């Protein structure tokens, strides 16, 4: 499995506040990075909105990160990045680490957040989210 993000967070100071961001690096030319589809600015804003424990809401996150407005093909590409084991599904352990796909230093989702996310996306009850289910979840 290829790590798409640097493991250390970098900080950038401004006069009003300090903004933490997570630059993305491609490890090989065939690897798709999340920032090939979503803007770094939108990713930073979305991650900032879910820093607090139990604050993750998939609908608002998808809207803030800009995924809700992307084409079906772009959403599928994001699905392929989130499907870390390339099984064709996003399983519970991959959902728990969902935010870390956007920045490796992001927090893991809590068990309750993960279960709610899975329940929202798993329309056929098989315990995982397929690409069609993910498409519907993003558009919800």
Q: Could you describe the 3D structure shown?
A:
It is built from six helices and four strands; from the N terminus they run ββαααβααβα. It is globular. The chain is mainly alpha-helical and 140 residues long. Strands 1-2 form a two-stranded antiparallel ribbon. A two-stranded antiparallel sheet has the order 3-4.
Low-confidence stretches: 1-21, 23-31
Strand content: 5-15%
Task: Describe the main β-sheet briefly.
Answer: 2 strands, antiparallel
Order of neighbouring strands in the sheet with most strands: 1-2
Question: What's the count of strands?
Answer: 4
From N to C, what is the helix and strand string? Answer: EEHHHEHHEH
Q: pLDDT average, as an integer?
A: 83
Radius of gyration: 15 Å
Cα shape: globular
* End-to-end CA span: 30 Å
- Structural category is mainly alpha
Structure annotation, total helices = 6
Helix content: 25-40%
What is the gist of this entry?
The chain is mainly alpha-helical and 140 residues long. The chain contains six helices and four strands; from the N terminus they run E-E-H-H-H-E-H-H-E-H.
Q: Which tags fit this structure?
A:
140 residues; mainly alpha; two-stranded antiparallel sheet; two-stranded antiparallel ribbon; 6 helices; 38% helix; disordered N terminus
Topology:
Layout: E1 10-13, E2 18-21, H1 40-48, H2 58-65, H3 72-82, E3 89-90, H4 92-96, H5 111-121, E4 129-130, H6 131-139
Antiparallel strand pairs: 1-2, 3-4
């Amino acid at each position: 499995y290829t790590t798409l993000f640097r493991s250390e967070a970098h900080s950038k100071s401004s006069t009003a506040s300090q903004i933490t961001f997570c630059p993305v690096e491609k490890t090989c030319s065939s690897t798709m990075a999340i920032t090939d589809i979503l803007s770094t600015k939108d990713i930073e804003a979305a991650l900032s909105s879910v820093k607090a424990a139990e604050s993750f809401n998939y609908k608002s996150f998808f809207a803030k990160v800009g995924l809700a407005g992307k084409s079906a093909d772009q959403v599928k590409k994001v699905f392929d990045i989130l499907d870390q084991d390339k099984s064709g599904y996003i399983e519970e352990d991959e959902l728990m680490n969902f935010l870390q796909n956007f920045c490796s230093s992001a927090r893991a989702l809590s068990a309750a957040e993960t279960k709610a996310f899975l329940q929202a996306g798993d329309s056929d009850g098989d315990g995982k989210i397929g690409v069609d289910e993910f498409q519907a979840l993003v558009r919800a």
